[in-house]
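BUG: 3D viewer hangs when loading the predicted structure for this chain

Environment: internal workstation, default settings.
Expected: structure renders.
Actual: progress bar stalls at 90%.

Input used:
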Amino acid sequence: MELLLSHISYLLGEHRQVPVVGLGTFTRVERPAAFEQNGISAPGVHIEFAAEVDPHAPRIVEASVARGLCLPLAEASALIDDQVAAITRALFSGEAVDIDGVGTLSYSGKSIEFEESQPAGWSALGWYGHVDATPLVAEEEPVAEVSPSTREAFMRSLSRTASSAAAVAILILITFITSQLPGRRGGGEPLNATFGVETTAIAPSDALIPRPGTSAPTVLYLVTNTPADAVIEVTPEPEPLMVADDPYVLVVASLANDGEVERFMAAHPDEQLGLLRSQGRLRVFAATGSSVSSLQADATEAGLYNRYPNAWICRR
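Structure tokens produced before the viewer hung:
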């Protein structure tokens, strides 16, 4: 039975549970390191034993014995059954069965009992040990005393720095005001652009004659007084993309982001292209159709397959 006991001891270091049919299940329970009042406890482990065995549990003991003795699994299982029978006979006769480094099995008259080798119940994992808490006391650094002469010199230096900064700010303000004077802006008057609504008396004419009792029409006027105000930057509207109304589109490029789409569109300025967002991809298409055959015919006639050899048809 020493063969089986040695395999149990070995397998508990590799597996969380070691089931032995006819004997019971050994379970390795690990405890992580934890903060305590007096420090940090080391991670630990202890072994538990239950007389029940899960019938669906893997037969790791049989596999270990078969691998160690180079036996077929059936012969290893028969050998383990003999070892279990020898262990139970020894327990029922009042003997204690020791598992090296794990604990001791015994029979209480009602059931098989297990007692760990570690009396405290937890054994340390590896070289970890308990870390005692040591209060940290901050060292007080001596504060250097500043002499009155040093303080006075610092205040004079600070005052000179503030005066210099104020002088620079005033100089910048004077320069800005000077640049706004009429003679500094191209010889014209200081100008502003003003929008207003004014009611103006308009002489009767053949084109516009106000009815009696009514005032002249309201006139919207714009006074432009500066060259900058007279210039309005106009951003041309981007050319609209093709709209996919049909169920099928001829995809010429499948791209990952908007930047790639912009670069592709810029590289084909003469093409009328559209954009389809589908399944996280941006697909640029060059034609649409109500069916696959009609779309293929239109694309072939337009020469799209010549310009885009890798084009393919996708359903929206």
